[in-house]
Amino acid sequence: MRTMKALVKAKPEQGLWLQEVPVPTVGLNDVLIRVLKTSICGTDVHIWDWDAWAQKTIPLGLTIGHEFVGVVEEVGSNVHDYARGDLVSGEGHVVCGRCRNCLAGRRHLCAKTVGVGVNRDGAYAEYLLLPVTNVWPCDPSIPLEVLSAFDPLGNATHTALSFDVLGEDVLITGAGPIGLMATAIARHCGARHIVVTDMNPYRLELAKRLGATLALDVRTQTVDAELQRSLGMKEGFDVGMEMSGNPAAFRMMLQNMCHGGKIAMLGLLPPAEIDWSLVIFNGLTLKGIYGREMYETWYKMTMMIQCGLDVTPVITHRFHYTEFEQAFAVMRSGQSGKVILDWSER
Ligand code: NAD
Ligand code: ZN
Fold first, then answer.
1. Phi and psi (nearest 5°) for 86?
2. Selecting from 3.30.200.100, 3.40.50.880, 3.90.180.10, 3.60.15.10, what CATH number does the domain 3-149+311-342 have?
3. Mutate-to-test residue for ligand 1 from 178, 251, 339, highest number of ligand atoms within 8 A of CB
């Protein structure tokens, strides 16, 4: 039996374990991918931490990870569109293909999604097995590190393109990797002012580099009518992107939207009270965002990069996969943007 190195959730406690596991067997419609680079997601940190969500979701023995780029190693006998050596990334949501939404081409709304690196073995390994329907052909002129982060860039793209931002004033709460990438996209797509909030000075600095008009530390500054006036705004923000998962940030956003404003919500908010009169009397539109549109989001982000979108400043740290403990420590410190793991042999 061929084996490979993989980062496995082997024990019900904090951490990950670098183990030797079998190389997956290629089925009829599968593509086996030799992983080149992966990037670390907040979800992976939850799995590392073994928090309440991870405990009820992640089966022990699972290879985790879902943000990756690699090359095709082997294809199943029914796969005709890919060949050994093709550069690929992939969608981490494996959908059922049979439900009403899937059949109508709204695959991102499938209610029976299975998550790569969450419900089935993932990408933190030398090889990853994906159904061909989930493989995305990459433009080789895009840097590998950026391609390895196409999954979160897709979250940012799906959110930022949900509403028209051309000439609009945009409020982004949360300058994590996804909020930072959304900042760059809103700038690329012609927003007027982009105000980004966080409480992490390292990330607020990055937000400025990615195109924020203002990057505000909510511990010392507030977004209010006076701040809006200082920017020459009269009626509030046209578009909001909630990317912090923090109820205080969302409440603040609701208070600062214009009448008829539109909010795309990506951050995983806990149950929390909001002032519904702001939503109702101000005629706000709230849209929940989960994952990426298959595959319109993948297309759009590729084309935006080809047309000059630059998200490389979001990538701040690089490690070899054998240094995964250091990589996760940096990620957990909050003093980082995206952290990349290199899976080449040493
Ligand atoms: P992250 O946790 O790295 O970033 C969140 C940022 O919000 C942090 O920098 C934090 O300091 C900041 N923050 C906390 N409280 C704040 C406040 N009151 N005001 C402003 N900022 C505040 O996460 P990320 O990887 O960038 O992802 C963003 C969010 O999207 C997270 O909540 C994540 O769980 C969620 N997410 C959702 C999906 C989806 O499909 N819906 C996919 C990926 C991630
Ligand atoms: Zn479905």
1. -65, 140
2. 3.90.180.10
3. 178
